[in-house]
Amino acid sequence: MSTLAFAPDDADAIPLLPVTPESLDAALATLPPDQAAWARRLGFRAGAGEVAVLPGPDGIARALIGRGKPEARARGRFALAQGASRLPEGIYRLDGSLDEHDAREAALGWLLEGYRFARYREQAAPKARLVAPEGVDAQRIEALARAEALTRDLINTPASDMGPAELEAAAREVAERFGASIAVTTGDELLAANFPMIHAVGRAAAPHRAPRLIDIGWGSEGPKLTLVGKGVCFDTGGLDIKPAASMLTMKKDMGGAANVLGLAQAIMGLGLPLRLRVLIPAVENAIGSDAFRPGDILRSRKGLTVEINNTDAEGRLVLADALALAAEDEPDLTVSFATLTGAARVAVGPDLAPFFTDDEDLASALTRGGRDWADPVWRLPFHEPYETMIEPGIADLDNAPSGGMAGAITAALFLRRFAPARYCHFDIFAWSQANAPGRTKGGLMQGPRALLAALPEALGL
């Protein structure tokens, strides 16, 4: 079972002293001589995540945990989180030597280190628990940890158990838990309701995996925030079929939907004073006799026509109809999350979440929020001269411009044609390729912590 909450305050909690290599000698000098000698015999050097358990007359007297050298602290995140897996069972309390930023990162990382995906196989979670460090917002950190656990669980679940219907069920559970409204338009109802591109992308799937649009609403006062998440529960590439190797992680192609559901859970759980709407186009991009084809021209909800030059560029199609719906409500801010392009990974790699916005203040707030909450983001441009690349001539828009250049930017420009005026788009990887402190291999939340931190400034909360 994952431990995603802080331990209750306990006067007998074991003191946990964070130590850097440069402060090691000074730290040992503050300890009783026998404990300092024990730490030296253990060979403790205060490397990132290294621990030393120091005995006392009644058990563990205290523990030391390494923060690593300055370059390690600058290059990595959640180094102290490794202690949750390396320390023996017990309740620990950081000694208070960390500043507010470092204490917040340590606390969040500790909870995230407790995540385990145990749906199909039992996974042992760390048994070392942490009292919330003094001065941190424990409620917010716990809400973020639970949000990330939801996001990871959804992404990690294979498509056999996480199709459009199961994604709808997860959305219903979140909505009902917080008293939110939810409406779902499914199958051929999408055509009657004027969501033609969502229908086109998902119509080849089996009937029990029919395409749908999930629409959640919560809150009655405050500014309007709309979150849109790409919910492609499996992407074969369609008739432009992906190579086998490229399909291995396509269960994560609904990572945008998972990220917005996790973020929505946090927003509702924290009771933020806003009106929240969540839109998730949930489909399977399957291969079948009714699959949409290269060369087809689709008409969108907005009325713009789209030439299909690659059926593997389907995410922007389903998002376009959802964004057009969002625009009709005139929200104060709309943010989309999608595992949209390989070009974004080429541009910034898997660890950064690139985002696009024309709003300078929002961009600055997101950058600060990412830095403050260990959620690194990087701004990419809506570069106007590339608009011509998404205009094929035969239709209003091209879903997959030829040439192989600027793929992340042209995809973002495509989405902006349908989006409300104040718009931000995240093109995320939503996946950790290997185990790292606070981040087990598999599904990942990218961008929501930065956005949550930016909302007070962005929406005047």
TrEMBL record:
GO BP: any one term: proteolysis
InterPro entries (UniProt xref): Leucine_aapep/pepB, Macro_dom-like, Peptidase_M17_C, Peptidase_M17_N_1
Keyword Protease: yes
GO MF term set: manganese ion binding; metalloaminopeptidase activity
GO cellular component: cytoplasm
Domain Cytosol aminopeptidase: 310-317
Classification via Pfam families: Peptidase_M17 (PF00883), Peptidase_M17_N_1 (PF21337)
Keywords from the named record: Aminopeptidase, Hydrolase, Manganese, Protease
Superkingdom of source: Bacteria
Annotated family: Belongs to the peptidase M17 family.
Name assigned to this protein: Leucyl aminopeptidase family protein
